Fold this protein.
Amino acid sequence: MAEEAILGHLEKNDEISDSGDFASQSGIDHNEIVNVIKSLHGFRLVDAQDIKREKWVLTNEGKLYAAAGSPEVQLFLAVPPEGISREELQRKVDPSVYKIGCSQAIKNKWLEIGKQQVSRKVQQVEDTAKDLLTRIQNEEALSQADIDALKRRKLIAPQTWKGYSVRKGPNYAPKRKKVATDLTRENLQRGDWKELEFKEYNFNAKGQPAEGGHLHPLLKVRRQLQMIFLQMGFEEMPTNNFVESSFWNFDALFQPQQHPARDSHDTFFLQAPSTTKMLPEDYVERVKHVHEHGGYGSRGYGYDWKREEANKNLLRTHTTAVSSRMLYLLAQKPFAPKKYYSIDRVFRNEAVDRTHLAEFHQIEGLVCDRGLTLGDLIGVLQDFFSRLGMSQLRFKPAYNPYTEPSMEIFSYHEGLKKWVEIGNSGMFRPEMLLPMGLPEDVRVIAWGLSLERPTMILYGVDNIRDLFGHKVDLGLIKRNPICRLGIE
Ligand code: PHE
């Protein structure tokens, strides 16, 4: 109806000079007129110019007085011609009517308010305030003095009125043709796309907010850990190969070939390609020798070391495989101290349960320098874990084939009120470092932990399958807060 009225009016007239007047003349709600103008303007059937007007509207208090009379008149009427005691008057009227009414009635010299008694000073009064408020409601013009008086009493407030003046636009037609917004399969099948008029693209329209690109909690925690390592001056190791040879994953780490972890029950071996092609031969010889006969002050394991076993490809079971490659590379150059870290995926042939998956992420850090001690390891771990919000640490002697001494790391968890194991650490053995060619006084302190453990604690996830894998609720990833390590 509004659309017909506007287009129809423009057919016979040059313009609608004021949408407000047009609305009251045509008896259509102004909001509806405005909506139609906006839509017609969008399709350029009309051109529209904004009109803004300041107008006065009643405040809640103003509305009250427009209906019930001003407080001064209400008070005056409550005073009988023979007068009334103050106490009784106060009982008769509302406290706010009494208070405001008194001050206005005194100002207008309507009432005599004595200590005990209140009496009329005039016979009759007129409710000017109420009249003025009614005139504002009817949108009548008032003198500036009257406006100021009402404004001062906070009975009226300014409001901006928005409307339009409207003329024919470049696409004007007395009736809007329905334009198509989409070319559909049906349009193509029926062939009616030839007759259809399509809505123009609005390249300035804002698109739907893009859904996607939410970071997984593991990625957020990984980022924070990366920042901690970088702040501590560590460099990232390249962890881009998930497939590793047994040599770098186990042998280089002085892990004997009959060690149970090297069993297919614990490790995923590759079928194709099943073996590695290239290993540094002279280094392989030294590794073989240290396994079989020892050296560098060690007795070795005294077994028959087999090259075929070292050649077997596997999915790396720990990122320490990367550390062994990096330390070997370091040993090929004149020695320089290094701090390395990595955070990436590892694989273990394990039964999946609430806390274990066959693949997870490992965080690994190592410091390589001359003369490092166990004290340095403890100090670095204190520094590292306190940046994660875990400052109470305890260490327990442990065993790894490649570290001596080795320590499990425990942290006191305020939420769980108990000590929880958070990682493993140690000093790499001379049987590992010396065959690589590192100088004799160089020590390497290192530690590792899973990325999943702190993430589960931080995000309150108690089943690892809710965090990682095909059963994860995508909503969890969309709603999760930015990771804030150390803030419980
Ligand atoms: N590689 C060990 C693990 O998989 C972690 C570790 C790294 C331990 C470095 C000591 C030194 O649990």
